[in-house]
Every structure is written in C-alpha cells, then in structure tokens.
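May I ask for a single protein's sequence together with how it folds?
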Amino acid sequence: MNHKQPSFFLALFPILVLIFLLVLNVQVFGDDAIGGANQIALLFSAMVGTFVALYLGIGWKQLEKGIVHSIGTAISAIVILLLIGALAGTWMISGIVPTMIYYGLDLIHPSVFLVTACIVSAIVSLATGSSWTTVATVGVALIGIGTAQGIHEGMVAGAIISGAYFGDKMSPLSDTTNLAPAMAGTDLITHIKYMTITTFPSIIITLMIFLIIGLNTDIQEVSKGVGSMLKALDNKFYISPILFITPAIVVIMIIKKVKAIPALFIGILLGGITAIIFQPDVILEIAGNMKDYAKASYITVIDAITVSTNIQTGNEEVNALISTRGMQGMLNTIWLILCAMIFGGVLEAAGLLQKITHTLVKFASDTGSLVATTATTCIFFNATTSDQYLAIVVPGKMYEDIYPERGLKPENLSRTLEDSGTVTSVLFPWNTCGATQSTVLGVATGQYWMYCFFNLLSPIMTVLFAYLNIKIARLSKKEQEAITSESQTGV
C-alpha cells in the first residue's frame, strides 16, 4: 500500500502524548490512576496515533485489523487473569492460603523473610516455568506473611517478583525462555547456559540487597501482633499441612507441562472441594448460616470464584489479608489490558514502532551499543505494545540478521531479549504482566517497581557485560563467511 513514511518525531508523538498523560495521572490520581485515568490516557493516545496514521494515508480498516490482532494476542492472558482471580478466591476460603500464611508467620524470621520470599519464588517458578502461576499461588501467601510481619508491601512484592522472574527466565519450561532462542536462531540449552553469565550476578546482588534490608529491619517492631494474628487464623480455619495437597497437584501438573488454563481450572475446582470438606464454618458464614449445607457450599464457592468475599476473624489485619475479589476483582485490570492493546495495535499497524526502532539501529556502531539498542528496544516495546511477547518477537526479528553481520553468535541476541524483554514487562502498570501482578498481589506497580532489583539489574547487566566485552560469544571467521554466503544466495 502506498502511503507517506512518518518522520521519527511524528512516529514518537503518540508515545510522548501517552507519557505526558500517564505522568499527569500519577500526579493527580496517585495509585488510583489504574482505576480509569490510565485507560483513558491509552485510548486518547491511540486516537492521536490514529490521526497520525490517517495523515500518512493509512486507512481505518488497516488500523482496525491491527487493533483486533493486538487484542487477540492478549486473550489468553485475559482468560488466565480471570482464572487467577477465581483461584485466589477458592484457595482462600479453603484455608490453603491462610495455612501458608500461618506457617510462614510461625516459621520465617522477619530478618530473612525478603531473601526467603525471593528464593522460594525462584524455586517454584524454576520448577513450573511460570512467573504468573508463582505469583498467583505462593506469591499471594508470601505477600500476606510479609504484610503481617509489618514489612513494606512494596518490598515484599519486589522480592516475590524478582524470584519469580528469575525462575521464569531460567526454566526450560518457560514460554519466553523457548521463544527468545527461537527468535534469535539458537537452541534452548545454549540460550540458558549463556544467560547464566549475566543472570547469576543479577540474582546474587538482588539477594544480598534483600538480606541487608532484612538485617537492618527493626525486628521488635515487625513482630508486633503476630501472635494475635496466628490465633485469629487458627480460630477461624482448619490449619493443617494436608491442605497443601491441592497446590502440590497444581505444581505437578505444570511441571508435567499441562497448559496453564486447564491447570488453573483444576486448581479452582480442587480449592472449592477442599473448602467444602475442611472449612464448614467458613462455608456457612459466607452463605449466611443457612441450614442446607449443600446449598451453602454452592453459594460460597461460586461467590469466592466470582465476587468479593470477606471473612471475619476478629482481627482487622487478618480480615484484610484473607479478603478476596474473585474474577470481579480482575475486571479493572482486563479493561487496562484491552486499552493498552488498542494503543499498541494502532502504533504497530501504522508502522510507527518500526520507524522508531529502525532509527535507533543507526546509532549501534559497536557490540556494546548494539546490545544497548536491543535492550532499549525491548523495554520500549514493553512500554508501548504492553505485551511481553511482542517485546521479544519484534526486536528478535529486527536484529536477527544484524548480530551475525557484526560477528556475534545468536545467543547474544537471545540473552538480550530475555534480560530486557522478559523481566521489564512487570515494571509497567499498563503492560499485561505489570497489570496482572499488581492486581494479584494487591500492590500497585508504583509501590513495588523500585524493589524489583533483579528486574532492574538484568538489562543493566547485559549491557554492561557487552560494553566490557565479558564472555561475548563471537562467530569464527569461517562461520561468519558461511552466514554471509547464505544471506547473499538466499539459502
């Protein structure tokens, strides 16, 4: 199709408008910006992008197709988000999460809680290959334990997310860990091995920071009220390790490569059954103390899956910890995701994102600047398309030929895609990852992003290693000549 090519500033203009509106919303609405103001900012910026596209001669039908395609890429995430809301509800009324909180409060010392939370999240995520599942299960329990111990919820969320994204990034079961080498043209094992060079220093520094924070925490202040919270949980719920059977089944299913949606659905059903068997008092309380237990069970489980449920324990702090919002609590996040996908769809269909990234490539003169440009592009796509996968796929396709032309093996590209695309997605409140994790944990992105030390360090580490020329995998002269020959002959 014949249409004008945008200038760099024109391509950047809708993004500048979005940045201005998002900053304004933070100033005016604070943490409540996600309640509607940011959605309107995304839609308004998408309209600005539409006007730019029309000026360039791009028709509305093309833009509409781009929007539909963009939203289509987020459908799976939206379904998972709804299921996570339902899972949190049934696992709360079943006593699964309260039991995790109970043992966590009883066993984990506040001074090492942040380190423990990070390590536990990393292990679970490494085993399951899913940061989302980790945050929605053990993450929910850990945020409750940390908050109950008086630790800043942003720090707790940062520790959970840091560990969860380390495991997601390094697990061979992770979709992004398989996607990045596929985009770059290398194999999975080579990719994972090469990532250890930058990933291990990042996680070690992260753990050291959390340990220092924990050791400098006032333990007496933190431990206030823990005894009364334990008593409140014990009085309201049946607390037993037997309740861990349900989460263990879900983790095993994911390790066995059962897809996330059916695994979460089974987890929801098992949570409801566990509640009916082990928590009759909670069932009757939520249902209004009716005599028909079968009817009360049905009402309570459906309410836990769909809407807000509140359980009274006599302790206000515990009440806040164990309240749930079900699927209904996820709707605002889904609204944000849809608006973000509309904005990203318009910019991609209009070719504005491509113009920006192609301009940036011109400044990549050496290995360090090339990796820095790639990392910036990944972060840019996380911020603009609001989708983690696009932040890997599009830059992967953009730079897949440039790296071998510069004499660099493809694992340099795949590592940069993961170090920058996978881990930074959770730092943007309008990205599907950021919106989901903040909703699941009940902590605004603006409260936790500065404590996601692993996520912040990873792109810095990969760029630093490139500039310092540390462990940069290079093609031999023969390999580079072979690649050049193939590209020239089209083989």
